[in-house]
Amino acid sequence: MSIEFLLDENMPFALIRFLEEKGFRVNHLKKIGKGGIKNGVVYKIAEESKSWIVTRDADFESYRKFVIYNVGGIIVFKLSKTRTQHLLNTMKRFLETYRDKLFAKRLIIIEDREIRIYESGKEE
What we know:
4 helices; single chain; Rossmann fold; alpha/beta; 7-stranded mixed beta sheet
């Protein structure tokens, strides 16, 4: 199964190459001409390709919306350090430990000191 990510406009372009080098398919809202769109439209775009939404936007933490939309999953980064390299390092560590979590729909919230993973009404 091929995993595709849809990067929100608040994600660095460097994440595209990083994820592609790991074997993932990746789109970025700005690269497909969709910068500035509402979150509901982001969900709809992700639904079309069953993509994982990757964002820093706390609005995507809503479990209710996560359940409603038929996306691959959602990853929300809530890191205190905003530098691109820190985000790439955090994603690298996440994939080394939790890559298997990407094969089912989940809401994943990555914070400085913890990773919360929600699936089908429960936290793992």
